[in-house]
Structure formats: structure tokens, C-alpha cells
Specification:
Radius of gyration: 19 Å
Shape: elongated
Strand order of the largest sheet: 1-3-2
Number of helices: 10
Number of strands: 8
Structural class: alpha+beta
Oligomer: single chain
Largest sheet: 3 strands, antiparallel
Mean pLDDT: 89
Strand content: 15-25%
Distance between the termini: 61 Å
Length: 197
């Protein structure tokens, strides 16, 4: 099988970037004729997929995870991954380490949240979506972050997500309280936690 056909097969399975093509021994320059003929499409800078690939809810998350692999989904984006909000934010929230300069991202719209250590790397989980690792903060850390950023995303969103998580028994209360103390929002969260207990 020639390299172009191997590339076509990779595109049918999902997203392809230069690193994935290089690992397979395929030069990324072979994708350009496929884009011109309409067999492939450019999803984002350096990321391609099959032209007839279906669009999934996770496509934006997967694209951004490939573009900014050290980013961690947070706030409303993480709530969306945990199915704790009905809100459809117009941009994805991604935490990156302070001092790191992320690449310019044309699509999907993104809001970078800069964090310093130890908050950046605390409670990070990795999920796989179509073979692409997606980094997201744990549920407890996400809820605490929502209360910390309540002026940005709205207190009602944070309370609603906390209530939904408690009603579905998704929360480890000890981890939630530790995260609240670490991020210094325990005083803010205490009345809501007492009301839900």
C-alpha cells in the first residue's frame, strides 16, 4: 500500500497532524493534494481530517487538544465534559502554565486561563476521545474553579453544577473540600455545601 492510501486510511479514522503522519512514515506534504481534490479538509493549522467525516460534539475538544497538548480543559468546558451544564459556551476554556505562549488558534474559539504551579498541575485527568488524549481537571477541582471564577462565568452556573453533581452522587466530598482549601474558596463554598448536605 502506498503512502497516499495509508494517509487516506488515517484520515478516515480521525484527525491527522504532522506528528502522527511522521510517526507513520508519511510526509505531511501528501495531504495538500488531497485537500485540493476535496478528499480531506483542513480543520485547524496543521490538523486535517477526511472531508466526509462526521462532526461530533468532541471535535472541537479533540482539535484543541492536538493544537495545545499541554492545555487542560477547565471551567465551563470541563463542566460540559462532565455533563453538568446545559450552557453552550461560545469559546472553550483551557488552562495553561503561566509563562507558556500558546499557539494562535483560529478555530475553535478559545479562552486561555493562565495558572501557576501547583494549581496548574493539580488534579489533572486524561481521557481518550477517538484516540486523542484530552486533559481535564477532576470534577472536584472543576467545581472549585467555577466558584473561584464566579465573576467570570456566573455564580448561578457554579451553584447549578454543584447541585447537579451532588444530586447524581458524583462528588467525593473530602476531595472537594481539600480543593476548596487549596484554592482558597472554602469560605465562599461553605454555605452552599452545608445547604446540600
Amino acid at each position: 500500500m502506498n503512502k497516499t492510501n495509508r494517509l487516506r486510511r488515517m484520515l478516515r479514522r480521525g484527525f491527522v497532524d504532522a506528528a502522527a503522519a511522521h510517526r507513520a512514515g508519511i510526509p505531511i506534504s501528501l495531504v495538500y493534494p488531497l485537500v485540493k481534490t476535496g478528499e480531506a479538509r483542513r480543520v485547524s493549522r496543521g490538523i486535517y481530517s477526511s472531508a466526509n467525516a462526521g462532526y461530533s460534539d468532541m471535535a472541537d475538544y479533540e482539535t484543541l487538544a492536538m493544537t495545545v497538548p499541554q492545555g487542560v480543559f477547565c471551567l465551563l468546558s470541563a463542566l460540559r465534559l462532565y455533563n453538568l451544564t446545559d450552557e453552550n459556551p461560545h469559546e472553550l476554556y483551557v488552562a495553561i502554565k503561566r509563562g507558556y505562549h500558546p499557539p494562535r488558534v483560529a478555530h475553535p474559539p478559545v479562552c486561555f486561563v493562565y495558572r501557576s504551579e501547583p494549581h496548574y498541575s493539580a488534579e489533572v485527568e486524561t481521557r481518550l476521545s477517538n484516540g486523542i488524549p484530552i486533559r481535564v481537571y477532576s470534577l472536584e477541582q472543576t467545581l472549585v474553579d467555577c466558584f473561584k471564577a464566579r465573576n467570570k462565568i456566573g455564580l448561578d452556573v457554579a451553584i447549578s453544577a454543584l447541585r447537579e453533581a451532588f444530586n447524581n452522587n458524583m462528588v467525593d466530598r473530602n476531595n472537594l473540600w481539600e480543593a476548596a482549601n487549596r484554592c482558597r474558596v472554602s469560605r465562599v463554598m461553605r454555605p452552599y455545601l452545608e445547604a446540600l448536605s
